[in-house]
Structure formats: structure tokens, C-alpha cells
Design goal:
117 residues, single chain, 3 helices, mainly alpha
Length: 117
């Protein structure tokens, strides 16, 4: 998966998260007693997936900023420290991405299942 695909996938999941949460918020306003505990649990998971998506974007932005600064310092030690930090940010981005994906799938499945049944 390329960097561009990572961004597109993350933003697509964020968009679907917002749509599903908005849909059920509208249902809650219309019929306050309709939402069961299972739906609320699923919405909590979707909210957690949304937070992971925001953190992905923040780590990517920080990673890009630090990567651009790696070429600036002439001190080799500073350059090595920046490379180490950017490597950790890259790992964090991918871990957050997989967490977002798994939590989103579980949250969406839970929410839809309890809504239908």
C-alpha cells in the first residue's frame, strides 16, 4: 500500500464513521428509546476508530515535517535522532491504521447487527 492509498483509506473510513454516527444520532433524536446497549457499544467503537483516524493524520503530518528537516542539520547525531523519530512515527502510523481498520469493522458490524435484530 502506498502513502497515497493510506491517506485515502484512512479518510474514507473517517467519512463513513461520521456518516454512521450521524445517522444514529439522528435516530436517537427522533426516537430516544430505540438505541440498545449493543448499538451504543458499536457507536463507542466507531468513535474510537474515528480517534485513531485523527491520530493517524497527526502522526503522518509530524512524520512529514521531521522528514523534511532531516536534510537540514549538518550534525550527523541530530540527523540520526530525527531518522529514528521518523521511523517510530511511521510504525505508529501503520499500527494506528490497522487498529482503526479492525475497530471500525467490529464497530460497524456490531452497530448494524443490533440495529437489524
Amino acid at each position: 500500500m502506498t502513502i497515497n492509498q493510506l491517506g485515502l483509506t484512512t479518510n474514507l473510513i473517517l467519512t463513513i464513521n461520521i456518516a454512521v454516527i450521524g445517522f444514529f444520532a439522528n435516530i436517537k433524536i427522533s426516537n430516544p428509546g430505540l438505541l440498545s446497549c449493543g448499538i451504543k457499544f458499536g457507536l463507542g467503537l466507531l468513535s474510537l476508530s474515528f480517534i485513531c483516524g485523527i491520530l493517524i493524520n497527526l502522526t503522518r503530518l509530524t512524520d512529514y515535517r521531521l522528514t523534511a528537516q532531516i536534510t537540514l542539520p549538518k550534525n550527523i547525531l541530530i540527523r540520526k535522532k530525527l531518522k529514528k523519530i521518523t521511523n517510530l512515527l511511521g510504525i505508529a502510523t501503520w499500527c494506528l491504521f490497522y487498529c482503526q481498520l479492525i475497530i471500525f469493522a467490529i464497530g460497524l458490524t456490531t452497530t448494524i447487527t443490533f440495529f437489524i435484530f
